[in-house]
Amino acid sequence: MADDLSNDPEHKLHAVMNHDWPDMKKGFPLSHFQACGRWFAALSADDQVVVAAQVRATFEKGNEAEAQKAAAALPPAPVCPRSSRSMSPWSCPRWRV
């Protein structure tokens, strides 16, 4: 089955942050992490190194709005299983405390 993809920068941000974090204790199904991994692997080398790194670094500094702007340049990403609009900026599975 094909992954459902979204051009929403929030979904792209989630995919960048979760492509390498298959921790089932964080509340998302393994299939979501696998989809994020496939998506990341299909990115161009430039997108992997430059854009995704910028997205991650910006988000880790606490600037979600700027991270979303950078993520907007990436191709459509897997849809987050829950509406990210209802989650706080730090609730990506990787960063939930």
What this model shows, in words?
This protein is mainly α. It has one domain. The protein is built from four helices and two strands. It has helices at 9-18, 30-42, 45-60, 64-71, and strands at 5-6, 77-78. A two-stranded antiparallel sheet has the order 1-2. Helix 1 (9-18) packs across helix 4 and helix 3 (45-60) runs antiparallel to helix 4. The longest helix is centred in the middle third of the chain and has 16 residues, at 45-60. The protein is globular. The N and C termini lie far apart (32 Å).
Helix content: 40-55%
* Shape summary: globular
Profile the largest sheet: 2 strands, antiparallel
Q: What number of structural domains do the residues give?
A: 1
What string, H for helix and E for strand, traces the elements in order?
Answer: EHHHHE
Coarse structural class: mainly alpha
Q: Strands of the largest sheet, in order across it? A: 1-2
Which residues form runs of ≥5 with pLDDT under 50?
Answer: 86-90
**From the alpha-carbon coordinates, what is the Rg to the nearest angstrom?**
12 Å
